[in-house]
Design brief:
single chain, about 325 residues, alpha/beta, FAD/NAD(P)-binding domain, 5-stranded parallel beta sheet, globular
Length: about 325
């Protein structure tokens, strides 16, 4: 059974930043990732452009080369591969942490790979940097589990000349609607509020509003989908009227949330209202001694509070505290 100083759960940008700091302090560590490197970014739309500038995505003092002020998804994937190689970070992919048991000073971590292989590790400390993008907010309606429904938007090409519904009124929904429409899909946008979300980026808002106003994208404001069928969906409007519209595919972009159940299972206390885990703001150590939290999971339900731009600094905070105790 392998013994470590630190086990890092999650190989996103924040997890990688923590790993780089562990390497800089000559500690024995391992990163365990249930998917692929920077799994969330890999699952972003293939044509996505980041909302932030390239220098705010950088970790480990390595520059992100890009011809654009705002890098594309492919550039970011290449960059984080280069970071992992440059620092020779030990990462196990397709390996999920299924349990952490123990107390301050020693934890047993159980994992399982996608092919069913089980492993155990002993670690003095653990850093949980699992993000939130892997768990969508489900609508709980009939038909949500149909193959035609996805909570992730990736590529527009398969939906050329198809009737596509996008559920959601925030930035990701606006981006998906515009991308689908520009690649030949017939797009309907359905959202609960009277207006589109204020979180839509300033350069995207006029584009989506103009497409709606000219009739290129069909809107259903103050509406919700109540049922998804093989060839149609039911939309309930604010006036109580329900309409059934033809539909081939549904993108339910209704947001995502951290794995609160995993944190509770470890023993991390979570506020029942905000879903924020108990965490020292200076050290980022949770109420469980030796268990640290990094990245967006610190913010609970307010996932718009922490991004790569600020989560990438959590590694230095955490390692500064760990080194005082070793």
């Amino acid at each position: 059974m392998e013994s470590l100083d630190i086990l890092i759960v999650g190989a996103g940008p924040t997890g990688l930043a923590c790993a780089i700091e562990a390497a800089a302090n000559n500690l024995k560590f391992l990163v365990v990732e249930k998917g692929v490197l920077v799994n969330s970014i890999y699952n972003y739309p293939s044509t996505m452009t980041f909302f932030t500038s390239r220098e705010r995505l950088e970790i480990g003092d390595l520059p992100l080369p890009s011809l654009n002020t705002k890098p594309h998804r492919a550039e970011a994937l290449e960059y984080y591969r280069r970071v992992a190689d440059f620092y020779r970070l030990p990462i196990h992919f397709q390996e999920r942490v299924v349990g952490i048991r123990g107390h301050g000073g020693g934890y047993h971590v159980r994992t399982q790979t996608t092919d069913g292989h089980a492993s155990e590790y002993i670690t003095k400390t653990a850093i949980i940097a699992t993000g939130y993008y892997d768990l969508p907010n489900l609508m709980g309606i009939p038909g949500e589990d149909l193959p035609k429904v996805s909570h992730y938007y990736t590529d527009p090409h398969p939906y050329y000349r198809r009737k596509v519904a996008v559920i959601g009124g925030a930035n990701s929904a606006a981006v998906a609607c515009l991308d689908l429409w520009r690649h030949g899909a017939e797009v309907t946008m359905i959202y609960r509020e009277p207006e589109l979300s204020s979180h839509i980026k300033y350069w995207i808002r006029p584009d989506i509003e103009n497409r709606i106003n000219e009739g290129s994208i069909r809107p259903f404001a103050q509406s919700s989908v109540t049922e998804i069928a093989l060839r149609s969906i039911c939309v309930e409007q604010n006036n109580g009227e329900t309409v059934r519209i033809e539909n081939d595919y549904v993108f339910a972009l209704t947001g995502y949330h951290p794995d609160f159940g995993f944190l509770r299972d470890i023993g991390v206390e979570i506020d029942p209202t905000t879903q924020r885990p108990q965490c020292n703001t200076e050290t980022l150590e949770s109420n469980v001694p030796g268990i640290y939290l990094a990245g967006v999971i610190i913010a609970g339900r307010d996932t718009n509070e922490i991004f790569i731009e600020n989560g990438r600094f959590h590694g230095k905070q955490i390692l500064s505290d760990i080194m005082k105790k070793i």
